[in-house]
């Protein structure tokens, strides 16, 4: 009986040891998961910072500030107004001459529709 009690005691100790090993493995696995999550979070933050930096640089190169855009638009508008005014001053006399010649030299003609109406109105004899 003593030997069977000792065998049972050995089995109980082996079970306790196995429970400790399993608990230690679970704790190790939990710690590894926590470490992996924190490492992944660090990587995500680093990637976010890098992408934000790249976006800021891209925005500076391509978008500029809204003040720069407004200033460029105003400069282009002023340039185009100067060109239009220069063309107006250059061609004003020619346009006035063409208008006056069109008004002064009138050659009256009967409208084609009026000609058709006159033909229809004349009775055939």
UniProtKB/TrEMBL annotation:
GO (cellular component) term, any one: vacuolar proton-transporting V-type ATPase, V1 domain
Pfam family, one: V-ATPase_G
Coiled coil (residue ranges): 30-94
Segment forming the signal sequence: none
Similarity annotation: Belongs to the V-ATPase G subunit family.
Its biological purpose: Subunit of the V1 complex of vacuolar(H+)-ATPase (V-ATPase), a multisubunit enzyme composed of a peripheral complex (V1) that hydrolyzes ATP and a membrane integral complex (V0) that translocates protons. V-ATPase is responsible for acidifying and maintaining the pH of intracellular compartments and in some cell types, is targeted to the plasma membrane, where it is responsible for acidifying the extracellular environment.
NCBIfam families: V_ATP_synt_G
Subunit organization: V-ATPase is a heteromultimeric enzyme made up of two complexes: the ATP-hydrolytic V1 complex and the proton translocation V0 complex.
Name recorded for this polypeptide: V-type proton ATPase subunit G
Species lineage: Eukaryota, Fungi, Fungi incertae sedis, Chytridiomycota, Chytridiomycota incertae sedis
């Amino acid at each position: 009986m003593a030997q069977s009690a000792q065998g049972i005691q050995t089995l109980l100790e082996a079970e306790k040891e196995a429970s400790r090993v399993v608990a230690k493995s679970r704790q190790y696995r939990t710690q590894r998961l926590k470490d992996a999550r924190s490492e992944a979070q660090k990587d995500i933050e680093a990637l976010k910072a890098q992408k934000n930096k790249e976006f800021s640089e891209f925005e500076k190169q391509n978008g500029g500030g809204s003040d720069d855009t407004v200033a460029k638009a105003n400069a282009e508008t002023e340039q185009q107004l100067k060109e239009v005014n220069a063309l107006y001053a250059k061609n004003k006399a020619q346009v006035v001459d063409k208008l006056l010649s069109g008004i002064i030299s009138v050659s009256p003609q009967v409208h084609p529709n009026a000609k058709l109406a006159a033909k229809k109105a004349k009775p055939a004899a």
